[in-house]
Amino acid sequence: MTLPSTGAVCTFTGTVRGVSTDHETAQLHYEAYTPMAEAKMKQVADEIRARWPLVQGIAMVQRVGRLNVGEFTV
Question: Domain of 57?
Fold first, then answer.
């Protein structure tokens, strides 16, 4: 969602890669230690706000569990 004063939306999306230089992957299982992951995402958001104070909104999602090739991870 954006505000009427929003002039742009920037996104970063990670995906499960199926082919690397030395192997193929069918799926990945992502795990996270929630307190540490949330602290790191807060740190990133704080750095964004410090560098670009006019940013109106920040949203982050790190998926966990089984993800197949091509699925979004971040």
Answer: 30-64
In a domain, 51, yes or no: yes
Per residue in 2-20, pLDDT tens? 888 888 888 889 999 999 8
DSSP state of 19: B
Give the whole-number percent of the chain exceeding pLDDT 70. Answer: 100
Look-up: residue for tokens 């939306």? 9
SS3 11: coil
Instruction: Please choose, from the candidates 61, 59, 42, 62, the residue with its C-alpha nearest in 3D space to the C-alpha of residue 50.
Output: 42
> Hey, how many other C-beta atoms are within 10 angstroms of the C-beta on 27?
11
